[in-house]
């Protein structure tokens, strides 16, 4: 903590990993006295830079841009870019640190990184977003490359922003390479990348439920967020026979007892992706639903909960409410959405609980598959990528069980994911020497 003052999110992420990995190291001589964890918490490189741009009124604006290159032991740095007013060094270090373990779990050759800016895309015109993305890339292009560091989207960065950043990189470097993932389908993007984090989270939850001989059929599901991850998690739950009764955004949540079916989901996508409005407008079209302002959806009775909005969006009281209401499975689509005390409540209750670094790894998995397709200059079918995604999510589940299952068969997915992620990175670091 004294080396990283004022970085509570980063400390939170490190403590969670350390609690699982330190006892593991104590029982494994190979990993002792090599300062492995101490080296892993120190980013290989961090760049912080000025992002000046001109708004539609001709006024000069300035934001702060970042890229945290955390660990490249097993492959080029890989991780998303976040544009949100809350972005700071602590949040990006936590995300880059988590990403290192998550990418290791995918079995694909990707190191860990994360970046972003404290820019708020809300209320900005399309041209303002383009100017901002171009200015951001003017500096970032010096630090990334298809074999060095391959960013992707995250909160506030979707296909539109990735497209603008890719265009600017190509113009500056005079190179058409797979330097970003999440690109449009017509210029190197992979089929199923938009769906993959949401789908992957549901595939992972499916594996968790299967350990109890159960599945999604007839399950009542609550999902937070209504962005990329939440939308496609909803789609997959519907396909598997579950009923999603709540979605949220930063201002409140909607409760629709009848279920948010495919037609209603299409409306949510239009509201959030095209009109860039709030989830509140859902009830205008579907008046049987209720809108609850300024609240999170965790008090809604459900069997399965999928937090898919942001970090620390589910606290102790929320965790207690979920357990009291009979929730049996929580799989995180977002990164670190549950506070440490909320996680303890889930663990004490011995319900199925998976941390984001395991359950939301489907996004970066498909990004890895996009990198492979770009290097091969080939395009795989939707089915091929989806099959690979399912296979890898199943493998991640197996890895979590390997290191997380106790003698009763109960799986501690936090322990399992952290140790499995650590082992591969640690082995590569040991082999590469002290660099
Ligand atoms: P989007 O920007 O598409 O959606 C984010 C959603 O979360 C929106 O509904 C947004 O509401 C809500 N939200 C954002 N900040 C807050 C906040 N402080 N409080 C409450 N709600 C908030 O992002 P994604 O769906 O891509 O990402 C969601 C989560 O999933 C993040 O934690 C991200 O790191 C993680 N993730 C994403 C991956 C991906 O492939 N996209 C991959 C792996 C993890 P509003 O619309 O009002 O802003």
UniProtKB/TrEMBL annotation:
It comes from the Bacteria. One of its GO terms (molecular function) is glutamate dehydrogenase (NADP+) activity. Coiled coil: none annotated. Keywords: NAD, Nucleotide-binding, Oxidoreductase. CDD domains: NAD_bind_2_Glu_DH. The keyword Cell inner membrane does not apply. Substrate binds at residues 78, 99, 102, 153, 367. NAD(+) binds at residues 197, 228. The active site is at 114 (proton donor). Pfam families: ELFV_dehydrog (PF00208), ELFV_dehydrog_N (PF02812). The record marks 154 as: Important for catalysis. GO terms for biological process: glutamate biosynthetic process. GO terms for cellular component: cytosol. Homohexamer. Belongs to the Glu/Leu/Phe/Val dehydrogenases family. This is Glutamate dehydrogenase.
């Amino acid at each position: 903590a004294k080396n990283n003052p004022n970085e509570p999110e980063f400390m939170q992420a490190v403590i969670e990993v350390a609690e699982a990995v330190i006892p593991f190291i104590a029982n494994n001589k190979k990993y002792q006295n090599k300062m492995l964890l101490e080296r892993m918490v120190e980013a290989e490189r961090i760049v912080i830079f000025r992002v000046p741009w001109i708004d539609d009124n001709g006024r000069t604006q300035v934001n702060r841009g970042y890229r945290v290159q955390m660990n490249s032991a097993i492959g080029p740095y890989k991780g998303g870019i976040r544009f949100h007013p809350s972005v700071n060094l602590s949040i990006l270090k936590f995300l880059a640190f988590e990403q290192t373990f998550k990418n290791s779990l995918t079995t694909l050759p990707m190191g860990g990184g994360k970046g972003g800016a404290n820019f708020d895309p809300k209320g900005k015109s399309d041209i303002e977003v383009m100017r901002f993305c171009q200015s951001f890339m003017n500096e970032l292009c010096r630090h990334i490359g298809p074999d060095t560091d391959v960013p992707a989207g995250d909160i506030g960065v979707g296909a539109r922003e990735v497209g603008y950043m890719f265009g600017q990189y190509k113009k500056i470097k005079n190179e058409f390479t797979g330097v970003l993932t999440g690109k449009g389908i017509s210029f190197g993007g992979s089929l199923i990348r938009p769906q993959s984090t949401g789908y992957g989270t549901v595939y992972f939850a499916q594996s968790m439920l299967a350990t109890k001989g159960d599945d999604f059929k007839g399950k009542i599901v609550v999902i937070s967020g209504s962005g990329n991850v939440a939308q496609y998690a909803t789609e997959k739950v519907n396909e598997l026979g579950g009923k999603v009764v709540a979605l949220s955004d930063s201002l409140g949540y909607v409760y629709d007892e009848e279920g948010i079916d495919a037609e209603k989901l299409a409306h949510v996508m239009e509201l959030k992706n095209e009109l860039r409005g709030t989830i509140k407008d859902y009830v205008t079209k579907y008046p049987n639903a209720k809108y609850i302002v300024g609240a999170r959806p965790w008090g809604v009775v459900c069997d399965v909960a999928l937090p898919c909005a942001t970090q620390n969006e589910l606290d102790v009281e929320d965790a207690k409410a979920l357990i009291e209401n009979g929730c049996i499975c929580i799989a995180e689509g977002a990164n670190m959405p549950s506070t440490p005390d909320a996680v303890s409540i889930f663990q004490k209750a011995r319900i199925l609980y998976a941390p984001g670094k395991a359950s939301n790894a489907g996004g970066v998995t498909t990004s890895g598959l996009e990198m492979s397709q770009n290097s091969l200059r080939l395009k795989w079918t939707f089915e091929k990528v989806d099959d690979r995604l399912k296979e890898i999510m199943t493998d991640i589940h197996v890895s979590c069980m390997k290191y997380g299952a106790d003698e009763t068969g109960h799986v501690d997915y936090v322990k399992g994911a952290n140790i499995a992620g650590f082992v591969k990175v640690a082995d590569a670091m040991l082999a590469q020497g002290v660099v």
